[in-house]
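FIELD: query
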Amino acid sequence: MPQACPCNPSIAYAACCQPLHEGRFAAASAEALMRSRYSAYVLGLRDYLLATWHPDTRPAALDLDDSPDLRWLGLDVKRHADAGDGSAVVEFVARYKVGSTPAVRLHEVSRFARVDGRWYYLDGEFPV
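FIELD: result
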């Protein structure tokens, strides 16, 4: 049975985020990039995360929690709005759990920019 994609367990990873992670093609939309970045967090793909971060806001290094007790529980995309001018917003909720602690709900409104035909993550805000 094929490995399920972290961003959408009903789709095989090989048919969803893996081609983006391997650089076979660029994300077609800001939502596709956001989903592939979520999957990259789940899979610990630090280089992909940095490569898809806009150079103006990209950190010099990225520390990922590589605790064996960390489990990502799912992703829910709430909204995707492409402004048509090379910018887009994606609102999502991701859930994760570390060990036996209660699950954490990460709610973010992310901004994306399209540069030379490729989408990049700019930054995000955490709504109250």
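FIELD: remark
The longest helix spans residues 30-43.
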